[in-house]
Design goal:
The chain is an alpha/beta fold and 360 residues long. The strands form five sheets. It has a six-stranded mixed sheet, covered by helices on one side. Strands 1-8-7-6 form a four-stranded antiparallel sheet, with helices on one face. It has a three-stranded antiparallel sheet with strand order 14-15-16.
């Protein structure tokens, strides 16, 4: 069966029908919004969504940006991970430059699909958002006001039979990869004592050029040190299993200008660990020391330079004291805090006190 050109409707007729249909849809939507209660609309919308979900072979995991006031670690990890999966032909990308960081953060834009593959399984990601109303007091103090805020969420879809794999394997893998990506992009910082700060520390970027490739050091000792650092970093779970604090101690000693500070910078650049320069002359009492230690970040290097000259010797009783505490008390407090404050890693460096020994 065929139709001649004479039997086909004209383009004017087609446009007229399309315009009438569009107008009817707009009118119907207006009637629903104005006369149908929100509860009824929500009920039917939810029912249609549930019916569609039951008929579909796909399962979708929703990863919200936050749970109330608590940020969602999974959302942040997915944002970092998907930024490395963006195709060069992606039509839109989001770029953000964090303060004191050298590299740009690249992430997926809203309503943009991204396909990923894991263990042969294809997964589709979409970044969506929703607006929620927030009530608060009016700035003029004459009543309350309602503002709209945007809450983002990721939707990751796959076949239903891979549901357990997504939840138990794929998402934990993204958490680990995101952590590794952050470490690779991390800008190493130097922290110094600043009592005006909330945690008694102030920071700047550690732009020191020293690396194990450029530092002048005996090749065998350099190789031994690098192997020791690698072994330490890889044995975090072993330390946890045997009930030991995950920390490593090194004693550097020698005349000024022999490269102790450069070696510390080389270690920091190699491990991508921040450096905390703890000048004991600036510490007023044990409580300040405790707060300084608690304020240090995880995966960092604590440096105490010239420790043998940071305390005044009292000839009468042969006891080395610093303000309200002895040297032994200060060092015991240091080690005790590092063993109990729950940080992941503290690496101590540049001790100049000859009677001290290397940590475990």
């Amino acid at each position: 069966m065929w139709c001649s050109k004479e039997n086909l409707p004209s383009s004017k007729t087609i446009l007229s029908v399309a315009a009438s249909f569009t107008a009817s849809v707009v009118l119907l939507r207006t009637i629903i919004n104005d006369f149908v209660p929100d509860s009824v609309t929500t009920y039917f919308t939810s029912g249609l969504r549930n019916l569609s979900t039951k008929l579909s072979s796909q399962v979708t995991v929703i990863i919200e940006e936050s749970n109330g006031l608590t940020p969602n670690q999974m959302f942040d990890a997915a944002n970092v991970y998907l930024g490395t999966k963006l195709s060069p032909s992606a039509p839109r990308i989001r770029a953000h430059k964090p303060e004191k960081e050298k590299e740009m953060d690249i992430s997926i834009d809203k309503d943009q699909e991204l396909l990923d593959s894991f263990q042969g399984v294809k997964l589709k990601w979409v970044l969506g958002s929703s607006r929620v109303e927030k009530s608060g007091s009016n700035k003029k103090g004459n009543g309350s006001s309602i503002s709209l805020s945007e809450i983002r969420h990721f939707e990751v879809s796959s076949h239903k039979k891979y549901r357990d794999m997504v939840l138990r394997t794929y998402l934990p893998y993204i958490l680990q990869r995101a952590k590794a990506i952050r470490e690779e992009k991390k800008t190493v910082k130097l922290h110094t004592i600043d009592y005006n700060g909330t945690d008694y520390w102030g920071s700047i970027n550690l732009d020191h050029p020293a690396t194990f490739d450029t530092i002048a050091m005996d090749p065998e000792k350099k190789k031994t040190l690098i192997e020791d650092l690698d072994l330490f970093v890889s044995r975090k779970e072993f330390y946890r299993r045997v009930g030991k604090a995950w920390k490593r101690g090194y004693l550097f000693y020698g005349p000024p200008g022999t490269g102790k500070s450069s070696l510390i910078a080389a270690i920091a650049n190699y491990l991508k660990f921040d450096v905390y320069d703890l000048d004991l002359k600036e510490v007023q009492c044990n409580s300040d020391l405790r707060r300084l230690l608690i304020g240090t970040g995880s995966r960092s290097i604590l440096v105490m330079e010239d420790i043998d000259r940071s305390f005044e010797s009292i000839a009468d009783d042969k006891v080395i004291k610093h303000n309200n505490g002895s040297l032994a008390e200060m060092l015991n407090l240091t080690m005790l805090t590092f063993s109990t404050n729950g940080v992941e890693l503290k690496s101590h460096g540049c001790f100049h006190y000859r009677n001290m020994r290397d940590g475990p």
